[in-house]
Amino acid sequence: MLERITKDTFDEIYPIFEEAFPVEELREKERQKALLDRPQYQLYGIRNEWGILQGAMAMWDFKDFIYIEHFAIKPAYRNGGFGGKKLKEIMAWAGRPVVLEVEVPKDEMTKRRIGFYERHGFFFNDYPYLQPPMRMGQKMLPLRFMTMPEKISKDVYERYKRMIHRIVYNFEEE
């Protein structure tokens, strides 16, 4: 079950992201928490049928697509189908295209992560993408988009990229 997270319950969720993501892919705790004031930002705890917190998802709800910023399952609950099941529920609930960012496939772990998303209906889009810095002093991070229900055209990619950069990262292209 997805549980909407508020500022009161945020501290239970953030450690899941800290464990799952490299520091360059995660905002500082207080900056991440402040996003809960933004109307398009939604944060969810992912619980099993007994109410045990097993993961978390941060997403941005745009008019014509959903952008999943973070999706993480606690290590103890990985490889049992739980993450895939929850991802399918999220995609069915979204009712419109879903976009997420993945690392450029360079090693076994990044290839496995991409494979996980492909097995659950996402398509890898090999357009060069640079994620604006999540923290002060960091450089742009080379990533790629994965999308569902299909690959996207270059024009759609550019539109999604501009919207994500402007609204999520407060970054305007030159």
UniProtKB/TrEMBL annotation:
<protein>
    <submittedName>
        <fullName>Acetyltransferase (GNAT) domain-containing protein</fullName>
        <ecNumber>2.3.1.-</ecNumber>
    </submittedName>
</protein>
<dbReference type="InterPro" id="IPR000182">
    <property type="entry name" value="GNAT_dom"/>
</dbReference>
<keyword id="KW-0808">Transferase</keyword>
<dbReference type="Pfam" id="PF00583">
    <property type="entry name" value="Acetyltransf_1"/>
</dbReference>
<dbReference type="GO" id="GO:0016747">
    <property type="term" value="F:acyltransferase activity, transferring groups other than amino-acyl groups"/>
</dbReference>
<dbReference type="InterPro" id="IPR016181">
    <property type="entry name" value="Acyl_CoA_acyltransferase"/>
</dbReference>
<feature type="domain" description="N-acetyltransferase">
    <location>
        <begin position="1"/>
        <end position="141"/>
    </location>
</feature>
<keyword id="KW-0012">Acyltransferase</keyword>
